[in-house]
Structure formats: C-alpha cells, structure tokens
C-alpha cells in the first residue's frame, strides 16, 4: 500500500498518542486534556497558528504551504470526544476512567489528523493553507455546529472541508465514500398525551390515555409507509412509552412518548414533523384527549458534494490502490454535517477491520489503519493544493 514513507515511519509514535488518548477519554465539551494534548503536539510540530477555545473546547490550527499563489484554503477535521460507556476490551491501554470510553475511535481520528499535521508541517509541499479542525462534542453535543457558530469557516477562510470516520467491517486500509447523502439526519420528538385518569373498572368515566397513545404509536407508523416515496429512506421509531399509572387497576392520566426520525432526504424532515404533529393532535382529539408534540431538530443529513467526493476518492485510491466510491449510505448521524452545510466537502469511511461496532464496549480502533488514514489527509492536501 503506497502510504507516505514518512508517515509509515511515524506509525509507532502516532500509535502511542492514540493509546494515550484511549486511556484518558473525555466526554462532550469537557475535552480540556485532549485539547491540551493536541495543542502540545501542534506546538512541537511548529505549525503556524494555534487557536484553542473555538466551539468552547475545539482547537483550530493553521499550516501554510511553501507557496501561497492562489489563496487556496482547505479544512481537515477530526473529533476528540469519547462516550459514556464502561470499557470491556481488557486491553492493557484500556480507559483509566470509569464509565468513559473511546468507543467510536475518535482517539484514532484525532491521532491521525495529528500525524498528518506533523507530516504537513515538516514537508509543506503544497501551495495554499491547511486549517486543522479538532472538534469537541460530536456525540450528541453538536460541537461541529458550535465551531461553525464561532465563525470557523469565515475566520479561517475555509473553502472546502474534509472529514474521516473509521468503519468496522470494512478491511483495514480500505476506503468507502459516496456523493450525496452518506449519513442520515436525526431529529427527535416528544408527545405528551393527556386524557382523564380513573378507576380501571370505570373506563366510561375516564379518557384512557394509554389506549389513545397506543393508537398514536400505531398511526405514526403510517408516516413512513404512507407518506414517503418508497424509494426514499426515512425511519421513524418510537423509543419510549411512559404512563403515569403505576398500578394495573388505574387508568393513566398522561402518557409521554419519545421517538426519532432519521432520513437521507432533507425535505422529509419538515414533512415528518408536520405529519407527526397532526397524527398526535388529531388522534388524541378523536378520543377526547389532547396531545402536545415537541420537535427537536438534531444533526442534518451528511451531504457530500460531488466534486469534493471525487477528490477525496482519488486521494484514497492513491493511498489504498482502490476505493469504493459508491458506498451504501447508513442511518446513524454525524455532526460534520453542519460543516458540510457551510462549505463543499466530503466525509469518507476508512476500514477498521473485523472489530466490534462503534459504541460497543468491546470496540477498539485498529492502529494498523493509522498510516493509511494519515496518508489520505496528506495526499488530499498535496493533490488539492499542488505546487506548480
Ligand atoms: Ni464517531
């Protein structure tokens, strides 16, 4: 595999960084130690600018090429946060923090971007500027959005942006990508149904909220099956159903439902919101109850732009020899989507081999993927910002 020789030499050192981060996981925006580690390494590499505290605890750094004749700027992004999971790998470098674990490989992503940064700062074999983006709170905290709201794209003049995620099940060193929607949007809803509580033996004097909410759950399943074009991808799940009755002989007064809608098609986010609200309110009304629906928008669809997907795939093919450039999209979501809403760019999967799936207590990032991952970032920069 034609990884860059310098990055192959650095494999052992980058693996040490990765394992250090793995032992010291931090959650959400509380990634001070991780961000500090990133800043220390970047200082050692002699990058041109380092700005911590973007998006609360994100780090932005700049490496200028040996030339800057065209004013080109590209952003490379890694995520730094871990998950509230008790690690069960039994590794000698397992998490030292009870209840926290790098179970999504963000330790690997951060280390690979650091490796690429060291290489780029040493070689500077590009014409333009590279902006390194280390973000907090990918796992549900919208750290990518927070960095964008702090002016990430405008302040650093980023013109296109790229990110990478490891993928269990894809062989180590291989890449997969597609233009268009790669990961789903993820919105949440809550429905509070209010009827009239009462005695189980006197339903005629009550409005049975459990029955009403059950009809709502069933009717919600028609949102996807009867509203969505069958060739589009939308999934709706009701995940919780809580009544305020604690006894078999009590009719509940209120029921709270919580669910999620995921789609690869942004237009269906709005349609789903309207349909869920209408079904909840009107079904409740038909039974003499009321329903209040709250919609909480989450991460957008991760939408790879056409040209940048091609550039990302070409760099991957140069590193790995081949690339799957028509990968199937998947329904988890990813907050790199916010960066792709602001700038053209692409998100690529890199193989993590035959490991447990992300977010599993036995998951582990495969360090053998490091040379290919670092080389992809570096190759992409040298291809997009060639020195004439
Ligand atoms: Ni992840």
What does this structure look like?
This protein is of the alpha+beta class. It folds into 2 domains: 5-182 and 301-384, 3-Layer(aba) Sandwich (Aminopeptidase); 185-296, Alpha-Beta Plaits, CATH 3.30.70. Helix content is 35%, strand content 24%. The protein contains 11 helices and 15 strands. It has helices at 5-9, 11-23, 32-45, 106-123, 143-149, 152-155, 209-227, 267-286, 306-320, 336-342, 370-384, and strands at 49-54, 58-64, 73-79, 129-135, 160-167, 175-176, 180-183, 185-194, 198-199, 234-243, 250-251, 254-263, 290-296, 302-304, 345-351. A 7-stranded mixed β-sheet has the order 1-2-4-3-5-15-6, with helices on both faces. Helix 2 runs antiparallel to helix 4 (106-123) and helix 9 (306-320) packs across helix 11 (370-384). The longest helix is centred in the last third of the chain and has 20 residues, at 267-286. The radius of gyration is 24 Å and the shape is elongated. The mean pLDDT is 97. The site of nickel (II) ion has 5 residues, from loops.
